[in-house]
Amino acid sequence: MNFARPAFVLLAAAAIALPAAAQEGTLKKIKDTGVIKIGHRDASIPFSYLDDKQQPIGYGVDICLKIADAIKAELKLPKLKVEFVPVTSQTRIPILTGGNIDIECGSTTNSVERQKQVAFAPTYFMTGTKIIVKKSAGIKRYEDLKGKTVVFTAGTTNERAMKAYNDAKKLGINFIPSKDHAESFLAVETGRAVAFPMDDILLYSLRASAKNPADYAIIGEFLSDDPYGIMMRKDDPTFKKLVDATVTRLYKSGEINKIYAKWFQAPIPPKGINLGFPMSDALKALIKNPNDKGVEACGKMKC
Amino acid sequence: MDFSVFFQPAFSGGGTYLDWVLSGIQWTLLVSILGWVIAFTVGSVLGVLRTTQRVVLRAPATLYVEVFRNVPLLVQMFIWYFVLPEIVPRALGDWMKTQMPMPEFWNAVLCLGFYTASRVAEQVRSGIQSIPRGQTYAGLAMGLTQPQVYRHVLLPMGYRIIIPPLTSEFLTIFKNSSVALTIGVLELTAQARQISEYTFRTFEVFTVATVVYVLITLTVTVAMRALEGKVRVPGYLGPAGR
What we know:
By secondary structure, chain A is of the alpha+beta class.
């Protein structure tokens, strides 16, 4: 059930009754409460994670703070408060539609299926599913996973991509769910699972922060495409327009290059690791022509 | 509200979402009931030990109870699953992680069983200690040995006295079994979360999960009531004023 729907019906009714009302939906909520609630992740490095002082930081968080600034200017609310709310892969959509956050800045794949529930800002990163394995486990291809144990973070698109692949190739993989990326990686590190399917960029950053990065390999072709977008509530055109305009402005002005370099090509907290991950051609194209196209049900941009 | 979601084909593994719910119920029952077998057995032994005169028997039982009931269940779950395999000898640890059949399931059963045992032990102890001392002396005076006093005098009455609080513990183990989802057991709550993720039908799915939990616990309550009535000692145990 969509909990937010009654609220929208009421707001829509209010909008019809008072055509002069300047704001509605999320903008009105932010104006009334004086707070914008930003959903963040705890271990989606470098998109949205906690630093050594337990403060949310990251590429996505920086972009969301720019959006908060734009809202501040739009609503003429210099004292607008930014409140961070932690979310997980499983909770992010219900928390957003339930109204406890206004916007989610993490590593959320924009999919056609999720678009039935929520709206996305223009894609801000392009990645895809691969798997991380211990080099000692002897896994070289997806086919080698036959009959092995694979851990996944519950609620991710990677879970679906891996399960669909398993069903299609009849590999008989034994799946174990886990609640976040750190715990999934722990399962691979301790040998409980041989592989962990995840967006490749997150795997690179998990590996970079591991005890012995050289022990792990990230392998495979992309099992799925994963365009990341900032998530917000559906059917709220004024808010989406403002968010989209802010993101597009960052793209057009080239400011995005600075933010990108800060998180992907320079040392980042908490350990001062440099991911050294230059901007992909796919992302460059998206920055030139921003769009909010989601990945199709088959897990690819084009089925 | 649209409960037809349960009849839709599930995302993977064939079958419908109803099959996911049924499988969840099955795991919830298995984890809880096997856990309860451990809890009742170990708890009974520990409860008896806690009432004996000998310090060498009493002290370890007391230590056990204080450790297991004072550490949060969630933490214990993680210790069983993530920490234990790393501190036991290498070969055993590797076996636990890779060879052991259904490691999540057995870890959950053991964790839940040993945790609840500490609580059952306290119930058993209180049951035994609520029996007037005179009965022990009477038993001993008749020539029964200490173990015989426990077997024929204290335990039969003690267990009858603690049926109501024991019922609560039994109900709690069904509810606590949902903690097993944190180490990957796909029991009822885990399945409910999974279905709501795939279908976005959070409200319907958790309504069904709630109803199932209530049905399970009501069944247990009714069964324990029946047991209580069946074994009650006329004129001694049972509600007053009836």
